[in-house]
Amino acid sequence: MSLAAVIMFALFAGVCAIGVPIGFAMIAAGLVYLILIGGDLGLVAAQGINGLFSSFILLAVPLFIFAAEVMTASNISDRLLQFVMMVIGRVRGGLGYVNIAVSIIFAGMSGSALADAAGPGKLMIDMMTRNGRYSRGFAGALTAASSTIGPIIPPSIPMVIYGAISGTSIGALFLAGIVPGLMMGLALSIQVFIVARRRNFPVEEAAPLTGVRRTTLRATPALMLPVLLLGGIYSGAVTPTEAAAVAAAYALLLAFVYREMSLRSLYRTLLASARATAIVAITVVGALFINYVVASEQIPNALGEWITSLGLSPMMFLLLVSALFLILGAFLDTLLMLLVMVPILMPSVRALGVDPVHFGVVVVVDMMIGLITPPYGELLFLISGVARIPLAELIRESWAFILTLVIALLAIALLPDVVLFIPRSAGYAN
Question: pTM of this prediction?
């Protein structure tokens, strides 16, 4: 690696340390690299524009962001919450199970952990902490942990980005995320079962039978979104990008049919979606140039040769990478790790014969756990802000959930056949 590249990475780390957004930090570091080597400064723009416009699949990202913003701004999540509460809320610690179930259902609509936490997650925290039934720290930590399921069960914004930069089938990634997402939900449910009895959590009142039909009918249109989304992709009717457009249009239609969105709230939703998309786009542009430098310096090839020389088995490599991402996730932005680390590691993945779909699922699960891992934990900061829960309380309760999710991650990494069973049944072959 050249001195210019070393200076670039050092500058990037230093600029990030003073609070500059990740995307701008990467672009600034890239410009310094070009100056040091006497290169054309226009390369930064060229790499970014070519990368963004040559990948049609990346268009799914703003569409899924918009769908998530619509469902958060409207009361679609309220209807889902009432339905799930009616079905599984009548046991000890029932609201804990409802929290997890709502995240799993909402995951089939938004593909975003942050949207899950900000929308139905906030509602769940309010319900759980009302009248002191659950502690604020436990409710917030469980909400953060269950929100990590969002980008695992399809659709998934991180999986779309992973597929775009690694050349992996988006449809296969979506299918491969179903079982791991359910495994994470099961692991969290077991933990809630144990804690509910240890802390004597309350039993919720049974829903009146007269309201069952009405609650079910109110929730059915929202519950149809994952069916339309996945059915369209796997029937071949639409591509993943077109499916994202269908999801956005259907969510918007529901919001107006339910009369939960005005033109003013639609404007605010479009503005929020544009801002979120701009953040992602700037980060992608910066990462594309950093990846250009990494490829020019032949870092992936050198790393691949070094890993191959260690004689690691595919499973040992997967476990080491999982540990690496868990550590990095406590300090770095998830999108940064996905955009920079994955291209560096992909040559080793191919050389060792690791299935790229299985690798992608493991990496995304790793990054989601990073969202609740102190000190960086974006979900912890988000929930602390929207629910006004002291960060110290959240962190104290979050460690048990982190351990539970790490155990689920180990099972996902060690059982590739379980993860790949559904995509293989649908015709996927590495």
Answer: 0.77
